[in-house]
Predict the structure.
Amino acid sequence: MKYWIFGCLLVFLMGCQRSERKPAYVAPENPVFVHLSTAATGLDFRDQLPRLDSLYLNFPADSARQENFLRLAERLLGAGGVGAGDLNNDGLPDLFFTSSNGENRLYLNRGGWRFEDVTKAAGLGGNGQWSAGVSLADVNADGWLDLYVCHFGANARNELFIHSGTLNEQGVPIFTEQAQQLGLQNERQAVQAVFFDYDLDGDLDCLVANNFQASPDLRRNGGMARIDCIRTKKAFS
């Protein structure tokens, strides 16, 4: 008798466990986000990181191999960025990707979720240095977005691509690099920058975040009439 009662109790408990199981996931009929393939969008950017096969952690302290590994790891932490903004004023957001070990890319939004790589035509090939963050802002207040690319690593210099205010026959915006002329080349291993009017004088200033070995820099815009008068101040001690 007791075995029969025990068996009934076991069947009851197993039934309870089945009823408590969560149902299988069912995708919603109208999802908020939908994945679009590379073939559908034309966004074929890939950040090719260097292989670490020749580097390993089993090496003597203070060795050259250890130093090389730490330098590479530091650079990997400061790589990669993406910016979105309407660079040809057609009402559609365009995309700019930075690369840690390759070429940066500008994809012009052609509508219908289709993007075209126009990097070379736009003059945004870059200096080939390790790229980190990118900021889109109308630095000279001419009604066109400009691009500021931060670079990371030894002897790295940031790039400021100023919009020429013109488009080619295909509607591609044309840029020229002017970081040195405008005082924004920054040689302190920058990772990201933001433009804002911190002194409320009507033009955009720039705060540059550097890696952990350097404090941020606050660069003040001397005025829209003479944007080459940007002066440098250290934001934090």
